Amino acid sequence: MGEDLSWFQYEKKDAATSGGLICRTLQTLCKKAVLGYGRSLNCFWKASKTGASEDSWNPWRLNRSCSSRRSVETRNSHLQRSGSSMKQNPKKVFGRVTSWSQYLENGSGKDDGVNISKDHTTDLSELFLGQKFASGTHSRLYHAFYKQQAVAVKLIMPPTEDEALAIRLDQQFSQEVALLSRLRHPNIVQFVSACKNPPVFCVIMEYLPGGSLKNFLHKSEPYSLSIELVISIALDTASGMEYLHSEGIIHRDLKSDNLVMTEDLRVKVADFGVSCLETHKEDMKGYTGTYRWMAPEMIKGKLCSRKVDVFSFGIVLWELLTGLTPYSDMTPVQAAFAVCQKNARPAIPPHCPRVMAKLMKKCWSTNPSNRPEFSEVVKVLEDFRMKSK
Ligand SMILES: Nc1ncnc2c1ncn2[C@@H]1O[C@H](COP(=O)(O)OP(=O)(O)OP(=O)(O)O)[C@@H](O)[C@H]1O
Question: What is the pTM of this model?
Answer without folding.
Answer: 0.74
